[in-house]
Amino acid sequence: MNPPSRLSTGGKIDRARPLLFRFNGRSYTGYSGDTLASALLANGLRLIARSFKYHRPRGIVAAGPDEPNALVQLGTGGAAEPNLKATEIELFDGLEARSVNCWPGPTFDLRAINQLFSPLLTAGFYYKTFMWPDWHLFEGPIRRAAGLGVAPEGRDPDRYVHAHAHCDVLVVGGGPAGLAAALEAGREGKRVVLAEADFLLGGSSLWRGDEGFLAGAEAALRALPNVSILTRTNVFGYYDHNGLVAIERLPDRGPRQRLWKLRATHVVLATGASERPLVFSGNDRPGVMLASAAQAYVGRWGVLPGKRAVIFANNDGAYEAASALRQAGAQVTFVDSRATPLAVRDQEIELLAGHVVCEVKGHRRVKAARIRNLATGAETELPCDLVAMSGGWSPVVHLYSQSGGTLRFDDSIQSFVADRAVQSVTTVGAAAGDFGQLRIEPLWQVQGRRKMFVDFANDVTAGDIAIAAAENYVSVEHLKRYTTLGMGVDQGKTSNVNGLAIMGEQTGRTPERVGTTRFRPPYTPVTFGAIAGPLVGTLYRPYKYLPAHDWHVARGAVLEDYSGWVRPTAYLRPGESWEAAAQREAVAAREHAALFDGSPLGKIEVIGKDAGTFLDRIYVGNASSLKVGHARYGLMLNENGIIVDDGVFARLGEGRYLVHTTSAAADRIAVTLEEWLQCEWADLDVVVLPVTSQWATITLSGPSAAAILGRAGTDIDLAAFAHMTVREGHVAGLPARVLRASFTGEVSYEISVAAGEAIALIDALARAGRPYHLTPIGVEALMILRTEKGYIHVGVDTDGTTLPDDVGMAGPIAKKASDFIGRRSLLRADAVRHDRLQLVGLSSGTRLLPVGAHVLRDGQVPGAIDGYVTSSYQSPSLGHPVALALVRAGRSRQGERLSLYDMGTRFDATIVEPVFIDKAGERLRA
Q1: Burial of residue 587 (number of CB atoms within 10 Å: 0-12, 13-18, 19+)
Q2: Which of 130, 358, 570, 791 would bridge 372 by S-S if both were Cys, CB 3.0 to 4.6 A apart?
Q3: Res. 313: pLDDT tops 70
Q4: Quick one: 684 and 713 in the same domain?
C-alpha cells in the first residue's frame, strides 16, 4: 500500500525495494531512490521543523542543496550528524532522523513562545538588548538556546580519506549542460572529471521527463575511458590556480566520505540555477514550497505535495510545474503577477493574471491563500493545501565567485550572472543565465499585514531589511551581518537576491548598485571529519623519532614530546626521579663529560653564489664576511623586528652555508627562507635545502670532551680546532661534520653523521668515554646548563614582543651596514623605549621561583606588573636556584629587590646579571 501522498506510478524510485526508516520516533516506509524529504512528503508529513529564531512551524521548501528549513539530525553519540538537509539525505534502510531546534518536537515546541516576543527580536536585537543591568545575567540562557542541532559527543567512529586528481577539464554539475560539456571534452580525448552532488546524473532531466537524452549521454560518457564520473560529490571550494575541493559521500562499507583535492587545466561550471521564493505574508508556512521543487517531487519521486495547489509566479518558468501538478491529479490555480502572462495550455488550470498571493492562511500547514487583484485591490480567499511559488531563477555562481570572477546583474532574467573570469573557467547552461525564452517581471515583495520572510533559515523578514536601511546598514556586508541575511546553513541560496533587491527598493538603488557579498567556501556544509581525513590522533602530527631512539630507550631514557620529536628528558637510574636524574646529569656535564643527542637541531643548507647576500638579509649579523670553516651565532627577526629564531650558522664553502635553527623551528624557518626567495628576492641565485632528517647530531660536552673525541678516533686536528669553527673529516671511522659550538657553556663538539650511522657513532663515543665518566644527558639537564650560562631559549625567554636589544643583543645591529628583515622596525618609538621588558637574571636565595611568576610593580595584588620569570632551575653546580626573567627596564635595575607573585604565594628576588657561570667564557674556549 502506497503512503498517502505517493503516486501509484512514475518517478525514478525503485518500488520493488521498500525501505523502513524512523523520523521523530515514528516508523515510515520509503523506496530506494528517495531522499528523506521525498519520503516524508510521501508519508503526508508537512510540518518537519521549527525556525531558528521564532520557532515557527516550517516545512520543506526546496528539493536540493538550497533547502533552508528541513534540517534534521542523524545518529547519536559520536556518530551524530547535526543540521543535515533532508533534501540531500539519500534514504537507506534503518535511517533514523529527528528534527532539530525544537522541544519536545516540531508539532509542539515550547520555544515557540519566542513568537510572542517577535516585536523585540527584530534585526540587530542582539546588539541592542540584554545589556542592562548586566549581559552576564542573560548569557547562560542565550547560549543554551543558541544553535540548531546537537554537536556529537565522543570519538567519531567513522573513517575519512583524502584523494588527489588532475584533469584537463573538470565539469561541475551533472545536469543536461554538464553532461553535454563532459561528453564534448571526452570525445576530444581530454581527461575529464565530472562531479555531481546528487546520487543520480541528470539534474532537471530527472523530473522534467527528458529520459532519452539523459540515458544516451550517460551511457556515452561511461564508455569513454578518459572520463571519470563522481556522483554524490559536492564541489564546495574553488581556489587559486584552478584548485578545487570536493566532498564525496561513500555509501558502501569502509570510509564514510572522501575529500577530493582537484587540479584542472580548465573548469566548466554547470551548476544550474536556484529558484527564488516570493516574499509575502506567511510565505514560510508548511505547504509553501518552490514551484520547481513541487514539480521535482512529482516527476522524480512520484510524490504529490498537494491536492489543491496555488501556483504563484512572476515568470514563465512556473507554468511547467503547474502542468506537472495538474497531470498528477492536483487541482491547480495559477496566480501570475503579470498583467499579460503566458497563455495556459491546460484549460483545467485556472489563471488569475495581474493577481498576487498576499497572505497564506494556516498554522501547521497551508489551509488557504489570500489573493489580491493588483488593479482593484480586491482580495479573495482560496482554499488550498499547497502554495508553489516562483520569483525567478538565480544562477548558481558561488564557485565562480570563489574563483575570483566578477558578477553583473542581468535585467532580462533579474539575476546576477558571471561576468569577468580571472581563472580558466566557463559557466554553461542555467549557471550562465541561459533560461531560454523566460519572461519575468520583477516582484520583490507583496505588502501584507504579517511577517514576510526573505531568509527562511535565519528568520529574516522584509521588515528587518527595512530596519537595517533606516539605521543606515545599507552596505551589503553590513546588511548581512546586521540582519544575518544569508548566514544560515543554506548560505543565502534562496534569499540573497531577494534581500539585496528589497534593500535596493528601500534605498533607491538597482540590485546591481547594491551588489552582492563575497561567496566563500564551503558551498554546502562540510564535516570536520572529512576535512581532517586520516590526519587524526597520532597521524595528525606524527611523532618524529631520533635515529638512535632504541639506544636511548635501552638506557632508561624518560621520553617526552618536544616539538613533535620524541626525546629523552632524563636517563633514570633505579629509584631515581627524573628531577634528580637531571641534576646528576648537569653535574656530570660540568665536571666530566656529557653525551647529548641533538639530532632534531634544524639543519638547512643555503647554496649559491648569492647565499651570503641572502643570509645577510635574513640574520641580524653578517654572513658574507664569515670565513670558510667558521661559524657565528645569529638572530632571525620578522618584519616587526621580533625575534623568531636563533642559532649558529657556518660557512662550509664560498657559496655554501649551513644554517642551524632551533629544533621547533626547523620546518618553519625552511618555509620562511623559501618564501622570501620566491616572493621577494627571486633574482638571487640561491637554493634552500632542508637536511635536518639526513643527519644525526651527537654532542660531546664537558672538560673531557676533547679527550673522548680523540680516543674515539678522528682525523680532525683537535689542537687547532677553535671555538665557533667547523671541520669535516672522520669520527670513529665515520664520515662526519663537526661544529665546535656550545649550548652548555662547556667545551662542546656537535658531531653530525649520516642518520643511519647514529647508533654506530654513539656506541663508539660511549666506549671511548667510559674512563672519563661520560654521561648521557636529556633535555632537562641541557635546560639547566644553558640557564646557568644565561643562554636564551627562543619562545621561552622571549615572547611575541621581544626585540634583540631586549635580550642584550643589539651589538651586531650597530656594526652592520646592510639592511635585514625587521631592521626598520627597530627604529620605531616603541622599539627604543627605555622601559621595555629586558632579560635579566634573578637571585632568590634558596627558594626556587616558579616559571611565570609575575614581578609586582607596587607589591599589590591585583596590581600592575613589571615582568615575569621565563626560566627557573635549581643549579646543582652553584647549590642554589637560578632564574631568568623579562623585567621592565631590567638592565638599569641591577641589584634591585623585587616582589613576585604566583598562584597565591609571594617571593622575593634580586636582579642580577643573566650569566651565573663562567661570565668570561673561559671554560667553553679551553
Answers
A1: middle
A2: 358
A3: yes
A4: no
Supply the range of the domain harboring residue 340.
277-391
Distance CA 542, CA 18 (A): 46
910 class by beta-carbon count within 10 Å (0-12 exposed, 13-18 middle, 19+ buried): middle
How many folded domains does the chain comprise? 7
Tens-place pLDDT, residues 233-263: 999 999 999 999 999 999 877 889 999 999 9
pLDDT band per the 50, 70, 90 thresholds, residue 2:
confident
Helix (H, G, I), strand (E, B) or coil at 867: strand
Pairwise pLDDT comparison (600 vs 208), residue with the higher score: 600
What is the mean pLDDT of the segment spanning 795-808?
A: 96
Mean per-residue pLDDT, 659-664: 96
Q: Measured between alpha carbons, how far is 808 from 454 in angstroms, rounded to an integer?
A: 62
Contact between residue 385 and residue 306 where contact means Cβ atoms under 8 Å apart: yes
Whether residues 419 and 491 fall in one domain: no
Give the model's confidence band at 120: pLDDT under 50 very low, under 70 low, under 90 confident, else very high.
low
Q: Please, is 678 exposed, middle or buried when counting C-beta atoms within 10 Å of its C-beta (0-12, 13-18, 19+)?
A: exposed
Residue 662 has pLDDT above 70, yes or no: yes
Residue 426 in any domain: the answer is yes
Angle at 585 between CA 584 and CA 591, to 5 degrees: 90
Strand-pair partners of 645: 636
Give the relative orientation of helices 462-470 and 496-507 as an angle to the nearest 10 degrees: 40
> Are both 437 and 461 inside the same structural domain?
no
Residues 19, 150, single domain; the answer is yes
488/125: higher pLDDT: 488
Cα(849)–Cα(847) distance, rounded to whole angstroms?
6
Q: How many Cβ atoms are within 10 Å of 350's Cβ, its own excluded?
A: 13
Rounded mean pLDDT, 147-167: 89
The DSSP code for 440 is B
Residues 487 and 593 in one domain: no
Angle, in degrees to the nearest 10, between helices 705-712 and 758-769: 120
Q: What is the Cα–Cα distance from 832 to 852, expressed in whole angstroms?
A: 25
- What counts of helices (H) and strands (E) characterise the chain? 23, 48
